[in-house]
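Students often ask why inverse folding is considered easier than folding. One informal answer: many sequences map to the same fold, so there is more than one right answer. In these notes we will look at a single instance of the problem. The structure comes first.
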């Protein structure tokens, strides 16, 4: 379960890196041309936007991987869930039985 999610996350990081490279190409190679098709401003804005979105995407994916790692550690520890309300009720019941 965790390996599949980790593989998908790595694939997402690779896609974000590809988008970052595309933004870099738009910004540094196409925008300084003499007369690009859509104008220089469009390529500058598009390049910056693609690079910013890819950096945000990588940050979110790394955060997800970190949380997934913590979740995996917690699951490996094998600690069972304890409901405190049930324990309090059972203690009260046993206390009232001994009191009688």
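Output (designed amino acids):
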């Amino acid at each position: 379960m965790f390996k599949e999610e980790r593989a998908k996350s790595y694939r997402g990081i690779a896609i974000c890196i590809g988008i970052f490279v595309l933004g870099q190409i738009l910004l540094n190679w196409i925008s300084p041309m003499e007369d690009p098709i859509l104008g220089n401003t469009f390529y500058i804005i598009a390049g910056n936007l693609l690079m910013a979105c890819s950096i945000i995407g990588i940050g979110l994916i790394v955060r997800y991987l970190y949380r997934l790692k913590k979740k995996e550690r917690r699951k490996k520890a094998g600690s069972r869930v304890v409901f405190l309300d049930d324990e309090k009720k059972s203690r009260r019941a046993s206390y009232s039985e001994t009191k009688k």
